[in-house]
Amino acid sequence: MSPVVNHYANHLGPVYTWMAGGVESAVERGAAELSALNLPPSTGRVAVDLGAGFGMHAIPLARLRYTVLAIDSCAALLDELRAQKGSLPIQVVEDDMLSFGRHLPEQAQAILCMGDTITHLPDTESVLSLISEVASALPANGYFVVTFRDYSTALTADQRFIPVRSDENRILTCFLEYADTHVTVHDLLHECEATNWKLKVSSYRKLRLAPAWLAGTLESVGFLVRRESGMSGMVRLVAQRV
């Protein structure tokens, strides 16, 4: 099991929906983000959600009449998606996002990689591989939308401590430790059990991707790219296949 998969399976996955503010609230935000993208209408065309989790974007995509391939490596989050999707046309697949093509029955109209998922890849070679697969899976005028945090400029001192969410029973804080090509994210989870607070710590690495590099790479393989401000301070690149 890779460090990222292990981190989500044993540490972050069980609290991820709580971290996102609950399924209903998160799906509403996902729907608003999709609305801002102005994706072309669908009558059953395929959309792919890479790193789908519990369905923040997969569920709104299906409600927009896309047939959705939702892929993620965290079984617990995919179980939540299965429980939430009802009769919506969502195929739920537990696999690595680099393997999405083997589950794709036809070319997709849109491929989404939202919520800082792309930085989970181990190296830039994997990013290049994903972009190549995405380009092959999209027809002319198809869309690839990716959001991610810009770690290219390192935070310093106390800025590296980031409060994520807290309530009366749980506190999640992350600490960032920078290296040349990666940032190590330490997730510190305090949970109250009865009257005792317990600390659980786990960490994993994310890529430090510069937005200009990723946009330029997409353009080099035949995408028109626009950069926008995404949700929660993320960078959003909207790339259209030409």
Structure description:
The structure is a single chain. The protein is of the alpha/beta class and 242 residues long. The chain is globular, with a radius of gyration of 18 Å. The chain has two domains: 3-150 and 209-241, 3-Layer(aba) Sandwich (Rossmann fold); 157-206, Single Sheet (N-terminal domain of TfIIb). A hairpin with a 5-residue loop joins β10 and β11. Helices cover 30% and strands 33% of the residues. The protein has a seven-stranded mixed sheet with strand order 3-2-1-4-5-11-10, with helices on both faces. Strands 6-7-8-9 form a four-stranded antiparallel sheet, covered by helices on one side.
Essential attributes:
alpha/beta, Rossmann fold, 7-stranded mixed sheet, 4-stranded antiparallel sheet, N-terminal domain of TfIIb, 30% helix, 6 helices, 242 residues, single chain
The average pLDDT score comes to: 95
Q: In what order do the strands lie side by side in the largest sheet?
A: 3-2-1-4-5-11-10
Assigned CATH architecture of the largest domain:
3-Layer(aba) Sandwich
Helical percentage: 25-40%
Tally of domains: 2
For this structure, what is the CATH class of the largest domain? Alpha Beta
CATH topology of the largest domain: Rossmann fold
Measured distance between first and last alpha carbons = 37 Å
Q: CATH superfamily name of the largest domain? A: Vaccinia Virus protein VP39
Structural class: alpha/beta
- Shape by Cα distribution: globular
Topology as a string of helices (H) and strands (E): HHEHEHEEHEEEEEHEE
List low-pLDDT spans.
Answer: none
